Known about the structure:
Elements: H1 4-9, H2 13-19, H3 28-37, H4 40-66, E1 72-76, E2 83-88, E3 91-95, H5 100-109, H6 111-119, H7 138-144, H8 155-171, H9 179-202, H10 207-216, H11 218-247, H12 249-252, E4 256-262, H13 270-276, H14 284-287, E5 288-293, H15 300-321, H16 326-333, H17 340-347
Parallel strand pairs: 1-4, 4-5
Antiparallel strand pairs: 1-2, 2-3
Amino acid sequence: MATRRGFIGGATGVGTAALLGYGATPSAADTSVEAAAVSQEQARESMFAVNSGMRANYATLKAELIKHLSPVVVVQNDAKGGRFTLVTKDGQESVNPVDQTFELAKSIAHVPLGIFSVIASYLADKIPNLPGADRIDPHDLVMVAFNDDTSTAWIEPLHAYAAKLTTARGNLAAANLPAALTTSCGNILDAALAFIETSVAAEHFDMKSFEDFSGGVYPDIRVNMEHASRAQIAGVRDIMKTWRAKTGEQAWADLYCVVISQWTTSVLNQNTIIIKDCMNAAKVATHLIDLPGLEPPADPVFTALDNLARIVQDNVAAEMVFPKDTVVADALKGQQDLLSDEILDQLGSTSLKAPAAPSYNTLTSTSAVCPVKH
């Protein structure tokens, strides 16, 4: 059976061109006449069309490749500890594996931030004598404190938030939480209600009074963080163990995990930390992908698979398109723009080179060790 390469190579130059649908190579005279009849704009548009064609071909390959990605675990970070989806050749299944304790503990731990969000724009735009005063950017403070600090317009929304806190406090005992978590949640809610009552009565607050409140409940917030973390570790470990058994060791060894997060939580994301020890350690660096965004996508699974398809096909294309330059090939494989090194060289600077991504394999916390044997 003749190969494509052998078949085309065995034809004559003119025969090959005719076979593929092209005319014979134009003469120099024909070329000059044609060039003279084409405007600069037309010439450039024809060049732009080449890239448009590339992008269309690239998109077609990516769309088809998505259908063959398997196995993949997609994690959409959310208030419940993460929505996990397993994608295999047989279909998809999704679950929120983390116990409600995670969301309950974090919900109450967020109370100081909830109060801050109401009063922040009414703060005076002068940095007071706080322990971390030198860590506050004065310009950032001016932009956040955009309302008149003599206004009392914050009282009504703070009252509305206090109503929610009061209801939660009254129902706390019936939530059936661990004793230590019940105590810490009660302390946070009581302190928050006291801060609101004092501030409303005085029709005044400032950064110092808020810092006294938030700093005072910090030990209780740490208790809530501990319970939330335990719940998340247990839930993620269990679902990864279940799916590993379902897919089998051979398939699991090539597992890709895509964690969708917001930029503010994309470095050492909690789910990423837990997941990495449940994967093939030899492939974590390339197969565990943090995908930060601005807001949660409308279709997180498709978004993850679409980006993963791009990553996978670029990994293969890199070595084939740039077989003589491993540095540029590595750029195509990763997050680096292909022109970044060249731009840095022309600017005479290397200071803008991106720092190395954190290596999750270097984490040694025993609390994050997956129980599944590798």
